[in-house]
Structure formats: C-alpha cells, structure tokens
Design goal:
Layout (H helix, E strand, L loop, with lengths): L7 E10 L9 E6 L4 E8 L4 H19 L8 H22 L7 E10 L2 E7 L3 E6 L2 E4 L6 H7 L30 E6 L5 E5 L1 H4 L4 H8 L5 H14 L6 E10 L11 E4 L1
Antiparallel strand pairs: 1-10, 2-3, 2-11, 3-4, 4-5, 5-8, 6-7, 6-9, 9-10
Helix pairs in contact: 1-2
Length: about 260
Amino acid sequence: MPPSAPSLALRYACASDPGRLRPNNEDAVLLDPALGLAVVADGMGGYNAGEVAARTCCEALRAALADSAGDTLATAGERLQAAVRAANRAVFERALLEPSLRGMATTVVAVLVEGARAAVAHVGDSRLYRLRQGQLAPLTRDHSLVQEHIDAGLLDASLARATDYRNLVTRAVGIAPRVEVDIGTIDLQPGDTLLLCSDGLTDLLTDAQLARLLCQGGPLEEAAQRLVQAANAAGGRDNVSVALVHCAPADEQPAVVAPPRRCGA
C-alpha cells in the first residue's frame, strides 16, 4: 500500500534541545509526512562531528527512501533497511574525506509507516515506544554495553541509569563500511502514538513517567515540548530529542500533507 494513501491519518511533531550541560546539540530529528517517515539520530564525535553525523544520517536515509518510493517489489522493511545502510555509507565515507570528522558516528531509530503498519529500524540506543490505550511499550532493544550486562545477568535493570558506562553503545552508524540493522514491523491502530527518542530522554525519565507525560493530552507539539522540558528539569545531562507520530482515524486525514521538518542539528 503506498504511503500516499494510508488507512490512518498521521500527525507528526518533534522537539530537540541541547540540554543543560552540553554546549551544542548533536541530535537530529527528521519528519517527512509524505514518505510516512520519522527519524531520530544521536550523533557522537569530537568538536562538531556528532551533529554532522546525525544530520548526514537523516538526510541520506530520507534520500534513499525517496529514491525507492516506486519500488513495488520491496517491502517497507527492506526499503528501510537499505536506507539505513545507505546512511551508514554516507556517514562513513564523509568521515574518510574530511579529517576533522574522523571517528564520527550516530545512533538512529526510524519508522516508515505504510497503511496500518510501520517498518522499524534501529542502530544504537535511541528508542521507539508505542503508547496504546494509556500503556507505553518499548519496541526496540538498546545496542549498548548496559543492555548486554543486563541480558547476561551482570546488572539489574533498575541500576542502569546509575552506571558509568550507560552511554556506551555497541553498534552505531558510520563506524565501519557496513552496519547491522535491526528491522521489525509493528501494527498501528487509531489512537496509537509512536515515540522516537534519544537517550537524553530515557536516561532521565522512566517509562512510567514518559507514559504520564504523553497521556496528559493537548496538541502533539505541546506533548513533544513537555517531554523535553521534563528531561531538562530532571537534570538535562545530555541533548534530548523526540519525534511523535499520532495515528488518528482515516476520516481525519488532513487535506494537505506537510513538508519535511527537521529539529536539532
């Protein structure tokens, strides 16, 4: 089913902030309603390399999906996986060409909505959640040292936020010529809200707190800002970025599809 004729009306919003301790914002958010795409990337690297990595990843991913939009033989998951791999090559090759960007990399989490389903891709520790009927469920699993230690029984999940290595990822876009991408598919229902976010949000707020903030209602843009403000109020140790995709009944489909939108880097 083409993304131009979904069975759900989608609303998009994003917010991004450097936080209270970081001098610049190395996160990037990209929303493209025409493609049914939402992306959050959390860059890493010295000087301005992190923000370049995140922005390059988002732009290359979107360009690859736009190029493959007419491919009726590939599934949404296949197209999204190929797009993340293209983004990985773009980040890696740019770092090779520009010495000041050597070592840059980024996490990424992306959703591509087609009809009442969405393909999900992620690399690193940026996350995707789905809020349904007041219940928030994580839909991705971090590629991080903390998660590996939790899985091995070496760390209790309740202590994860207090560890010194909580931000060490085991997989990222741009580190090597090829990257392993986790791909999945989820179903969507009217009333669902998807939350994509960088770890600047989830390092400081619990899933229960995120659910309460999302359930307060109001315009979607206000909900995005509310999440960012809550992370900053809890310390704002890192850049914090969120993208929200709300699924409404199809008869609420807007007459005009909004243009692509960016937040952050």
